[in-house]
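Writing this down once: the sequence line spells out the residues, with the fold written below as integer tokens. I am pasting one below:
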Amino acid sequence: MASHYTFSASDAKKAIQDHGIYAIQNPAFGDCVAELERANYATKSPEGIKHLALNSLLREDIKTVLKEILGELNWGLIKIYSAILPSDYMFRLHNAKPNKGLHTILVLLWSPNSEVTFYTETQNRPTKSEPDVTGRWGLLATKLGKDKGAKIKMMQGGLVLVDSRVGFTISSGISVWVGCTTETELQHWGLLDVPHSDELKRVGLWLKENGIHLNVACMTEADQEMA
């Protein structure tokens, strides 16, 4: 069930643009992750995708923030991460690059008893990643040095909207990721690895009616047929 709790979209937008991150603690988001846990984290099933959508991109507050910053909404990433990530590394999805600004926002749903440190200056600063650790975890991994981070505790669970270039270290808890990006950036991404089914296509069409492109093969083919 989607949360009835709402936040200020204008405050969130300003926080992301100024600092790369907006975070709130609220049990509704912890409940969402708990429900996914009961379903064995089937986040890439049609029902799991619908559940994630209702608790992230289809929420009016989150949708408003993403649309105002990114423009068109392209859902191209679903991941789950936890404190299994080595604590002596900073991880992030994208590196900072000269003349390339914010292009992807991650909607992170956090379980209860979560604690994470975000390094909020890193969205504007390239770092060198270590290939072995990066390859193992599928995230850019940089050995922690003198970076100063902001530690966030979400004892009841919570929500974080973050620029994908911001680095982080997870101390405890589980985070379910929904990644939304620009149309231009999406051209460099692969399709979501989701099993095809008629039900998936119905969910994809439902999302499209609500202004969200799900980057899976059946929806890409449907768009090509309509072009």
